[in-house]
Amino acid sequence: MKQNRLIYVVDDEADICTLVCDELNRFGYETRSFNTGGRAAQAIRRRLPDLCIVDLGLPDMDGLGLVRELCAHQGIGIMILSGRDSTPDRVLGLELGADDYITKPFEPRELVARANSLLRRLEQIDNQDGESARRRASFADWTFDPGTLTLTRSSGESEVLSTAEAELLDSLLRAPRQILSRDQLLGERADPFDRSIDVRMSRIRKKIETDPKNPSIIKTIYGAGYMLAAEVRWSQ
């Protein structure tokens, strides 16, 4: 793991910011904390962090608005840390592109472990070089570039995936016409609940399927997992 990764912590509770920052600092991370979404947004425009940990109950805005803004910046990890533990809030956060969702109260060491895992996946993407960095996967009417997390349709329109969405699609593309279970797709990631796979799959389908409710590219194999039903061609 690269040292001095920059992490922003956005929470209106000063003791939470201090707790999270102190724990992350112990593991070599550089941190900055903000008690409003507006201040965090200004800092993000000046310098992009590697990871942003966002509370949803901010005093000046809904944290989901900040998550939307962060999703416009490629390569930033997004972790929601919130007292909202309802399924709709979790699902909405993931649908907007957050990579992880942790509820309060939380165990600081677990938060660090999940931050480590997320940043490690981002680093693997950053470190793609040589032939693997230039390889793109073509399937159905789409081309996926793992280096930029971008999906491009043959007509020219493009979609940028979140880190978690791109990793999920990449796993399917590397095993076409094979059934992958949820455990295989999760890998080492410590997701807060199994529904996260379904939410991200739904987001990908909305981008690539003509009819997301009746998908023809990514099939659900009930009781087993998911399967990419299209031929995949890898090229430079």
From TrEMBL:
Residues in Response regulatory domain copies: 6-119
Keywords: DNA-binding, Phosphoprotein, Transcription, Transcription regulation, Two-component regulatory system
Sequence positions bearing 4-aspartylphosphate: D55
CDD domains the record matches: trans_reg_C
Cross-referenced Pfam families: Response_reg (PF00072), Trans_reg_C (PF00486)
Gene3D superfamilies in the record: 3.40.50.2300, 6.10.250.690, Winged helix-like DNA-binding domain superfamily/Winged helix DNA-binding domain (1.10.10.10)
PROSITE patterns xref list: OMPR_PHOB (PS51755), RESPONSE_REGULATORY (PS50110)
DNA-binding segment(s): 134-230
OmpR/PhoB-type domain sequence ranges: 134-230
Keyword presence, DNA-binding: yes
SMART domains: REC, Trans_reg_C
SUPFAM superfamilies, per the entry: C-terminal effector domain of the bipartite response regulators, CheY-like
Protein name (Swiss-Prot/TrEMBL): Response regulator transcription factor
Species of the source: Marinobacterium aestuariivivens
